[in-house]
Specification:
Layout (H helix, E strand, L loop, with lengths): L6 E2 L5 E5 L15 E6 L4 H18 L4 E6 L10 H10 L6 E4 L9 H5 L7 E5 L4 E7 L4 H13 L6 E3 L3 E3 L21
Parallel strand pairs: 3-4, 4-5
Antiparallel strand pairs: 1-7, 2-5, 3-6, 6-7, 8-9
Length: about 190
């Protein structure tokens, strides 16, 4: 893993989504820690390591972060169609959202794969709450290393939640033991 790197995450370019009712963008997930597993159905490392690891991340971290799959086909295009992918996701019980990486005519390597400069599959991308890539790895990576990184990212403070030109930026809600707000006193208590 390369946990020291910090570069803005490029937007996903997908042609179709599975396991979700709406298209997903990284911009719409800003404020969340995101784990993306880039895979191909016919990639042995994806089937034996990458996808099972992504499923474990989803099971362990639950709603604390977002797990996405990216079916990024750069070989055997005719065998790895969206119809085949749908059956594969059902058969392997993949429940997190999976996007199909978009292709440009005449180019074998899909668009999102090029944007993230991925070397192959399986690849894992971790994006922090502010939209920066904090890790991008190719091949197998250790669960313990990934878990430690995700724990650190989840402990980082959330970025400003609401910003508008009219109001400004609101601080993320925090829970404190005492309130700094003034308290009302009953005039009868002051006598």
């Amino acid at each position: 893993m390369n946990p020291g790197a910090r570069s803005p995450a490029p937007e996903l370019a997908t042609s179709q989504w599975f396991n979700t009712n709406a298209d997903i963008t990284l911009d719409s997930l800003r404020g969340e820690v995101i784990v993306i597993e880039a895979f191909q159905m016919l990639c042995p490392g994806c089937v034996t390591h990458g996808l099972p690891q992504a499923q474990r991340v989803q099971q362990i971290f639950g709603r604390d972060l977002t797990v996405l799959g990216l079916h990024t086909v750069f070989e055997h295009h005719d065998a790895m169609t969206p119809v085949s992918l749908e059956a594969f996701l059902h058969e392997y019980r993949i429940t997190f959202p999976v996007g199909v990486d978009q292709h440009e005519p005449g180019v074998d390597t899909p668009l999102t794969m090029r944007r993230f400069q991925l070397r192959g599959t399986p690849s894992l991308i971790v994006i922090d709450r502010e939209g920066f890539v904090r890790a991008s790895t190719f091949g197998q990576h250790e669960d313990l290393d990934l878990g430690a990184l995700l724990g650190r990212l989840l402990d980082e403070p959330r970025p400003f939640a609401d910003c508008s030109p009219d109001v400004g930026c609101a601080l993320p809600s925090t829970k404190t033991a005492q309130s700094d707000a003034p308290t009302e006193t009953n005039s009868d208590d002051q006598q």
